[in-house]
Amino acid sequence: MASNRQQALPAGTLIDGFEIRRVLGTGGFGVTYLGFDTSLERPVAIKEYCPEGIAVRAEGDTTLSPGDEDLAEAYSYGLTRFLDEARTLARFHHPSIVRVQRFVEANGTGYLIMDFEQGGTLWQLLRRSAPLDEAAVRGVLVPLLEGLEMVHGQSYLHRDIKPSNILMREHGSPVLLDFGAARLALEQQGGALTVLITPGYAPLEQYSATDQQGPWSDLYALGATAFHCMTGTAPMAATERIARLHGGEGDPVPGVLEGASDRYSNLLIENVLWMLEPVAGERPRSTSEVLDALRPGNLTRPASGEPTGAATLLMHDVETGPATVPATDFEPSPALTQGLMSLLEEHAGRVARRVVAPAMERSGCYDDLVEHLAGFVLDPQRQGEFCTRARALRTGDGAGQPDAVASDAASPDAGLPETVTEQARELLAEYVGPIAALLVEQAAGRTSDRDAFHDLLAGELEDDAERREFLSRLK
Questions:
Q1: Which residues contact 246 (CB under 8 A, 6 or more apart)?
Q2: Is 213 in contact with 159 (CB distance < 8 Å)?
Q3: Strand 166-169 relative to strand 174-176: parallel, antiparallel, unpaired?
Q4: pLDDT at residue 363 in the model
Q5: Per-residue pLDDT tens for 427-452?
Q6: Any bridge partners for residue 104, and if so which?
Q7: Tell me: the pLDDT tens digits for 375-415?
């Protein structure tokens, strides 16, 4: 069955006075488009209900339908819930919650018409600029807590809070996106909820449809997001944390944050750890509890429209002064960076792309660097294997690395043809929106090799399938 991106409506399609311009993003349950309100003459975001693996759109047709008769009931049920949620979300008016203007039923499916916000996701920001300073972390955490207070007051939960579902406006304020997982969770009609899991951000109770969920569940996910802002990585999955506690090994999450006490106040660390308690009953029960706890040490909030620390990083992505580079006992070459990244990715997955380069910049001793990276290998038996192979990489310092990386190191100033960067910018914009221009400029500044340039841009996409599709379309 075709992917949601392949089934997306073509540019120029009209839906009740709204024109489809291009795809902004896709997910397992829908497609989000950049649209245009032809009546008010302004851009909008349009989310189409399109459950992947269930919905089918024939080539040249705009109508969606279940791909199989056996799937008709599931498709209809999902569409009904989608429209029910649209009606509820349209009642929310808060600067930290994406605003639904209206909803439309057409083409056998449904559409949410939402405000279009300029900016990039928090996940994209963290890939380039984590960890954030305390002002920036609070600039994300406090407004989202205030928005969730309204959502929870209507007996709704988001249930999928994570950096890729948070948009950072151009002036730096956060907006919580994608309520595709929202349910009248406190009422739990029928006693069954769809389980939607994002490891690292999902609390333990979310792994079971029978466990009671509530505001404390969203608070865990928001706490995990704050942890990511403060450390550069998501916390260990809740299931693994519980397993370690039961096994007598101890929970590593508190130690990671407490080790950052030189950068963050005790007040912030204590509240994030409170939100991240593995056992639901030990977490705050409401957003107001966390807001009240944060207020005694709250930093002065910026005036309306004044960029926060996160905004400055998102818009400029530059350092405020010359970097202090520690003396090192190794040469942090592009080939060695790529080698360590590929090796760690075998053990730790995509986290490798976020931790290797920053760690190399901060480290003055290769052995210390290897030990630090080994901490991201959760299996103790494989940590030794990682350290052995990582130390062997230093011997050749890039020998045997891909030609693309070697070419990058050999001629960093050669530059890329304008046709290459323009093609990449236009295509990447279909996945991430206007921030594509900034990402392309940054990647072009890091390498003059076409394949390496394309790989850097693909790394900005969180979804594996989208990364493969993006690279395939470039070629």
A1: none
A2: yes
A3: antiparallel
A4: 66
A5: 887 777 656 776 787 788 778 888 88
A6: 111
A7: 666 555 677 788 888 888 876 543 333 333 333 333 334 47
Residues 6+ apart with CB under 8 A from 418: none
CA distance 348 to 277: 23
**Residue located via tokens 């299996």:** 379
Instruction: Give me the pLDDT at residue 196, please.
Output: 57
User: And the tokens for 447?
Assistant: 């390498």
**Contact (Cβ atoms closer than 8 angstroms) between residue 46 and residue 107:** no
In sequence order, the 6+-apart residues with CB closer than 8 A to the CB of 250 are 244
**How far are the Cα atoms of 7, 108, 112, 221 from residue 50, in angstroms, in the given order?**
9, 10, 12, 25
Q: Output the six-digit token pair for 380.
A: 């103790």
Q: Is the pLDDT of residue 309 over 80?
A: no
What does the block give as tokens for 293? 């706890």
**For residue 117, what pLDDT band results from cuts at 50, 70 and 90?**
confident
- Distance (Å, whole) CA 30 – CA 135: 34
Answer whether 145's CB lies under 8 Å from 132's CB.
Answer: no
Q: Tell me which residue has tokens 């002064």.
A: 321
